[in-house]
Design a protein that fits this description.
Blueprint: H1 3-6, E1 12-16, H2 21-36, H3 40-53, E2 57-59, E3 62-63, E4 66-69, E5 76-86, E6 96-105, H4 110-123, H5 128-134, H6 138-148
Parallel strand pairs: 1-5, 3-6, 4-6
Antiparallel strand pairs: 2-3, 5-6
């Protein structure tokens, strides 16, 4: 699965103004509603339930809030860049400013894990997080994510 298949240009939030982890996740839940047609509250609750199990902050200012939703018709992804980093209880105790949303059907099994792994691989590539932080707009962000999704980068 390519990241460009998962995160389209309409799935990017280039400048989210959030002051807390909860508020940042709420913004992603709103985008999730747009993408899936599901209720924002349902998405928010699934994401927060997952956060209660352990932070999805993977370090270096990056988080991948994710969850499974019954009856979802596919895997959906989004990307948000926060205007200011927020405390996310990340594994390295660093605040988060780059967030990837991943929503999958309950029965997605390995596809959900493959999508999570793909995101984690892309953001660990040399220079990708820095380029995402420096990008000027949603089009530039999408281009960086798409370039990082090329098979040669895998």
């Amino acid at each position: 699965m390519d990241l460009s298949d998962l995160i389209g240009s309409q799935s990017i939030l280039p400048a989210v103004k959030a002051t807390s982890k909860r508020q940042a996740i709420q913004e992603l839940a709103g985008k999730g509603k747009e993408l899936t047609g599901r209720k924002e509250r349902e998405i928010f609750d699934v994401l927060m339930e997952r956060e209660r199990l352990g932070s999805t902050g993977i370090g270096s200012g990056i988080a991948i809030p994710h969850g499974k939703i019954a009856g979802l018709d596919g895997i959906y992804g989004a990307f948000a860049r926060l205007s200011r980093p927020v405390d996310f209880d990340a594994i390295d105790n660093q605040p988060v400013d780059l967030m990837f949303l991943l929503l999958a059907p309950e029965d997605s099994g390995a596809d959900h894990l493959k999508a999570l792994a793909r995101i984690a691989r892309i953001v660990r590539e040399n220079g990708v997080p820095e380029r995402l932080r420096e990008a000027s707009d949603a089009t530039s962000l999408h281009r960086i994510l798409s370039e990082g999704a090329t098979p040669s980068a895998a």
